[in-house]
Fold this sequence. Notes:
Blueprint: H1 3-22, E1 39-41, E2 44-45, H2 51-54, H3 56-68, H4 72-81, H5 97-105, H6 114-123, H7 130-135, H8 139-149, H9 155-184, H10 194-197, H11 199-207, H12 221-229, E3 232-233, H13 253-268, H14 282-310, H15 314-324, H16 333-344, H17 353-362, H18 371-374, E4 376-377, H19 408-411, H20 413-425, H21 429-438, H22 458-463, H23 473-481, H24 486-496, H25 507-539, H26 546-561, H27 581-592, H28 602-619, H29 623-636, H30 638-652, H31 662-681, H32 683-693, H33 706-719, H34 754-767
Helix pairs in contact: 1-13, 3-4, 3-9, 5-9, 8-9, 9-11, 9-14, 12-14, 13-14, 14-15, 16-17, 20-21, 20-25, 23-31, 24-25, 25-26, 25-29, 25-31, 26-28, 27-30, 28-29, 30-31, 30-33, 31-32, 32-33, 32-34
Amino acid sequence: MTMLSTNILFSFTAIFFFCHATSISYCATAQDVEEGTTDLGGGVVTRTDVEYLADFSLDVRDIEQSIAAGNNNAALQIYLNGKHSQRPDGGGNLFKLTELSTKLANEPITQATPIYLFQLYGLGGRSTDLNRLSNNAAYADSYLRSAIQNGQSTASIATLILNVWMYAADVLYKGVHTCQIRTEADNPSQFDIGGSSGLDAFIALWIGSGQTHGSSEGYSLYALAEKADRMFIATKEDTNLPSSTTKALAEASVNQQLKLLYQEGASIFSIPSACSKTNIDTSKKLWSVITRMNTQMYIPLIQMLIISILEKDASATYLYATAVIPQAAQCRPSIFDRLKEELLGGEPNFQRTEITLRDLQEIYSCFGITCSDIGVVAKDYGDFNVPTCLAARDDKTMALYQPSTDVQPIARIDLDVLQIRVLTNLGSFNYAKFWYLYGRNSPRQRDSENDPYNYYSLSEFAISSSRRNAEPYYSAFISYHNDPNYADVLIRNTLEGVGKWDSNKSVEQRSAIITEASSFLVLYLHLIAQIHDAVNNCNDVDQDGEYELTHPWDEVAALIIGSLEGAGEGGSPDVQDGQMIWGLGTRCGYQFQTLNSQGYPNVNSGLEDLLFAGRGEIDALECEMLQKTADNIQSKTLVPLMQSVLKYAALNEQHTADSDSADLALGEVFASSIIPIVQIYDSASALILEENMLIQPGIKPVRGGVQQVANALGSAANAMGINPRELGSIPEADPSFLYGGSSSSPALQPYKLSFIATLSVAFVFLAIP
């Protein structure tokens, strides 16, 4: 970076904070704006010339005015051919509003940025069929052409929230991706990070041209955010926000935050060798900035959707729902499905408004939004009471368990898993890597404003030294894999397309390895470590303070249940919601016929009871009882893992070794999650699982048969103190077969499996030509 660029940045920073503190609407006169930069007003001066992007707001203005005058054809010509946005190449070429959507639509799906991918995924009803997603790629352009031709009053707003908004998000993610590949490159100069890697383009698109500071009058996303902000007042919990009487004098919080985040992002590029191997943290810092910017971008869209629903404005509701609801496909699946049906399944349904608004609140945390970010609707809607927002609280109830501490940031790591699942299933491994490396949904606690804003990440959990608290499991895994970072290596290699599950394997197989290894290799060992930590805290007589005693146990609940199960007893009945052990138990409970009388799995019912028991034992400092409870939880969490091994043994018996089915990858990763543990208690059974479930080139999977795998699981369960009948059964096999069967007497008389293991090994040697 040149000295000139650095001086521009520092000069901008000082002016920005002066303007922000004094609420002056136009501060450009405080300095001479350097050539090649753009003054957007309100103290924002970019490092590069992005005026042509800001000028899109003038096209939006003229489209609105043309439609108001009844000249729909003129409006359409502005949309298709452009009017004010002159490219800075000097050739007189215009950048057109239609290009903002068609450029994204014409890119290969696998190269699309995450926000655009989530949109297509949601529009396609959570389909991973790339052809189906491609059919929706032109959704924004199709909507705009029709709206303008028909003279709809919502057409100009549609250009902002469908075209400009999405393009603005797209340039942010492309920018951080360029920074990441530049960091990894041996010759970083070949990758251009001009314009602060997308930040200049973003802020120009957001603020637009001629925008008055703090005004809702205008034709930009900035003005829309001001308009939305004035329709809401502060929640009772947030007294820092301006009251309804002073809001007209203040800039909307969204716009304030985006300006601050722009400045924070720009300052990253003042560091020498940004986005290079000599400054490898640049991408992580930039990722944090754009993640928080993306959160702010959602707020005015959701606010306007809420108002449109309350006003029962069908056309506005459908428009804002088109912008918001497909994005919710990255959130809890059952909530998304319901919102899509209510708001995008034809005419919006205003008969169940309270349910719809509660469902909207359920997706706040998925977007990184709190109840106070949205605020309370200012207008009185008569007999209708807008539901109080409780969904985004950090002490939110999880499957009936009410934590006493704020553990939702830990629980929301399951959103990282879910979103990685979506991205990798769509072939977006490059962007999924950001979720894995840097996290997105679980913000770390900050003790002061000076602390960096980072997220818990799966990659950090995968190599954390806290795993040592999970003994003896920790040593068992390290010994088995001969690598202390076994899970991290597996996931990174698969993301990069190298190693056993390389780019020659199917997208479905690679996705399965990455997501299930994240949940049941990485997070499972972290869960066991946290269980032991909770017991150790109880035994530590020097520990003072209720928070220090209860928080580790609340984290145990968060890592078992996650954030996606809902508050009700038994968690979510939708088997696609949960991503943690609890959700796995739900999926297996139906198949293995191990449901209780309330209709949810016995194993989850047992875990629920044990979590409550542990809380009571901590309150009473009954540490010996807590140890027994912890041991029981540790055993019960193995049940769905064992069931999953048997499930995929039955499926994989039908596959060849070179099949591209995800079943092979799933069978291997679930087996890998328990084999090191089984070795501690029953080495013969561990060998049988290894020989049948780990995929080897040219060797048929499950060559010993499904019942042999079931027998090994039953024997291992018994050795660990788990009644094999707790595993249930499937039509192909019964894990309790060697113990009298699932309907027999509870008395257990196991056969020794050493002979079976010997036969298994002999079978393997015979199978090799």
